[in-house]
Amino acid sequence: xxxxxxxxxxxxxxxxxxxxxxxxxxxxxxxxxxxxxxxxxxxxxxxxxxxxxxxxxxxxxxxxxxxxxxxxxxxxxxxxxxxxxxxxxxxxxxxxxxxxxxxxxxxxxxxxxxxxxxxxxxxxxxxxxxxxxxxxxxxxxxxxxxxxxxxxxxxxxxxxxxxxxxxxxxxxxxxxxxxxxxxxxxxxxxxxxxxxxxxxxxxxxxxxxxxxxxxxxxxxxxxxxxxxxxxxxxxxxxxxxxxxxxxxxxxxxxxxxxxxxxxxxxxxxxxxxxxxxxxxxxxxxxxxxxxxxxxxxxxxxxxxxxxxxxxxxxxxxxxxxxxxxxxxxxxxxxxxxxxxxxxxxxxxxxxxxxxxxxxxxxxxxxxxxxxxxxxxxxxxxxxxxxxxxxxxxxxxxxxxxx
Amino acid sequence: xxxxxxxxxxxxxxxxxxxxxxxxxxxxxxxxxxxxxxxxxxxxxxxxxxxxxxxxxxxxxxxx
Lengths: 402, 64
Description:
The complex is a heterodimer of chains A (402) and B (64).
Chain A: E1 6-10, H1 14-25, E2 32-36, H2 51-54, H3 67-72, E3 76-79, E4 83-87, E5 92-95, E6 100-108, E7 112-114, E8 126-127, H4 132-142, E9 147-151, H5 155-166, E10 170-174, H6 182-185, H7 187-199, E11 203-205, E12 210-216, E13 219-225, E14 230-232, E15 235-238, E16 242-244, E17 256-257, E18 259-261, E19 267-269, E20 272-274, E21 279-283, E22 288-291, H8 295-311, E23 323-328, E24 331-337, E25 344-351, E26 356-363, E27 366-373, H9 377-387, H10 393-398
Parallel strand pairs in A: 1-2, 1-6, 2-3, 6-20, 8-15, 9-10, 9-15, 10-11, 18-21
Antiparallel strand pairs in A: 4-5, 5-6, 7-16, 12-13, 13-14, 17-18, 19-20, 21-22, 23-24, 24-27, 25-26, 26-27
Helix pairs in contact in A: 1-8
Chain B: E1 2-5, H1 15-19, E2 24-26, E3 33-35, H2 45-54, E4 60-63
Antiparallel strand pairs in B: 1-4, 2-3
């Protein structure tokens, strides 16, 4: 193919799709190639650990766009094929089917993959959760009411614990930190969440490392802990974080580290951009390099990258107020900003005891994040404090920390 | 322009309210989207498009 080089987007999930849609909406009529390694049209991931795992949604509801909407984008859509390497000198991407695609602008939206326990890839009954296929496999296990051990107590593990309890599984959460669920939200709300899980019958082991998986005939039968205990298990979910998919960029000169290292415009090199889970960029308002593995950021960053591609010599810095949410039992947890790294915690509405609250997290006396639990409108007000990095002195005087 | 929302997909993020406050609101109790105006005037179209683009639950559809 010797057609004009256009925009090549590697990664056909939320971020990649957002790039292509924004380019078209804003008038770009050149060629766009969208490459996805999963052999299905773009679909949404947050419901995988919620409605899809619970079986309350048909899988059809996951698709990010109807087929005719995608067709209307006039893409060269290549699904079920991986990008293997990129040559920045000739501006070409080589795909796993041997073909090459030339680009004027390249968008890296290859996301992340689950971190696994070493040596457990081939062990039946050991699961990770990232793709629709992963969710289907885990859902099949849950239908057997297993003893499920969840390794890692972040949001993903906690959401699965919630769904699995409702499905009748016996659930044990294992975390190597002393205060699970606290690494993002801090001790106060971490404790609240631990209490809620315990009330729902989840057993929690904290401060202990997993050292291996017990197997019988190639299938998991338990989880070995560093203190010598073995937890019996019919199924294991490993939810210990993710690894950015950047290996294919090795040798390309595109800077990588914890993800693709971009400037404040989400640009990693001339004509090379990144969006979504894989993108690390300098957030000039927060004053830190950050990488956000959450759904809202994928759409917003894809949009920002598309606009910067079209902006030529006058790109705009990407300065969102990050937003994430998690559903656990009857709790809706919503977070604006980055609670991690905060040095103050103030409940501004409701209370921890009522499990309805808004809390503002500060750093250096300024609002850094706002977290709501089952509280909607007051959280919107608190978000404005985060967006403006408001001085918190007045707020603290008004309401003493709970 | 005509806007439709799918309340069963809405995840109560409220991003639409920030993008287009004259078109969207949220229910008080659970934050689910309320469509205030399914047929907004032209000066609000860009906000509507932005809301549909950033909705993290893909719950907003804009027909033009």
